[in-house]
UniProtKB/TrEMBL annotation:
PTM annotation (4-aspartylphosphate): residues: 54
Taxonomic lineage from the root: Bacteria, Bacillati, Actinomycetota, Actinomycetes, Propionibacteriales
Organism: Kribbella alba
The organism's place on the tree of life at top rank: Bacteria
Gene3D superfamilies, per the entry: 3.40.50.2300
Protein name, entry field: Response regulator transcription factor
Residue spans crossing the bilayer: none
Domain named HTH luxR-type: residues: 146-211
């Protein structure tokens, strides 16, 4: 059986090396990218069957990669591979054209299987994430309002929001994101102001209602 041609897109060198080591004998890795520009160039040059795409990338994110590639090569298939399991990330990349979304705790064998299925035209999701997509289509999640509200927040503010909503103390958020407690407080104040919320309890409820935690 012919090996699937794959491009790996992630901004962490160590992660790309790990993917190469884990699945490099089962698929043919024909290129790599670390940001939007290098990813688009690698995909155009490599002509892969499937692109393994991280959601958060310098230069505009995974959705920007898909937008630029699909303008020229609409047949290219994308499988999102991310640490994030947040509803807005999952639905955002699916709306942009990805054929599936799996999280980075997936095993090498499972990833190779997912690549093959996406290459054959199937859609592939980690079990919990499939629920987000079904909820979005059924109307259980108001995606339009999630997008509109989240567009007001910076990437760092979204990260702080998610951790606070999960019950992290300010010190824990600071340690997790390698920033100061004062910076965390500033981001929380900004999030509350932009979302017109009064306190962290309302923030937690807001995030939970939208399946962001």
């Amino acid at each position: 059986m012919t090996q699937r041609r794959v491009v790996v897109v992630d901004d962490h060198d160590m992660f790309r090396a790990g993917v190469r080591s884990e699945i490099g004998t089962a698929v043919e890795i024909v290129g790599e990218g670390s940001d939007v520009d290098t990813a688009v160039k690698a995909i155009i040059a490599g002509e892969p069957d499937v692109v393994l795409l991280d959601v958060h990338l310098p230069g505009g994110g995974g959705t920007e990669v898909m937008k630029q590639v699909h303008q020229r090569h609409p047949e290219v298939k994308f499988l999102a591979l991310s640490v994030s399991d947040a509803a807005e990330d999952v639905i955002g990349v699916i709306r942009a054209g990805a054929r599936g979304y799996v999280t980075k705790n997936i095993s090498g064998t499972e990833l190779v299987d997912a690549i093959g299925r996406v290459a054959d035209g199937d859609a592939v999701f980690s079990p919990r994430l499939a629920g987000f997509v079904l909820d979005a289509f059924s109307g259980a999640i108001d995606i339009a309002s999630v997008d509109e509200d989240l567009d007001r927040l910076s990437q760092r503010e979204r990260e702080v929001l998610r951790l606070i909503a999960r019950g992290y103390a300010y010190k824990e958020v600071a340690r997790e994101l390698f920033i100061s407690v004062k910076t965390v407080e500033t981001h929380v104040s900004s999030v509350l102001r932009k979302l017109q919320l009064s306190n962290r309890h309302e923030l937690t409820r807001w995030a939970t209602d939208r399946r962001l935690v």
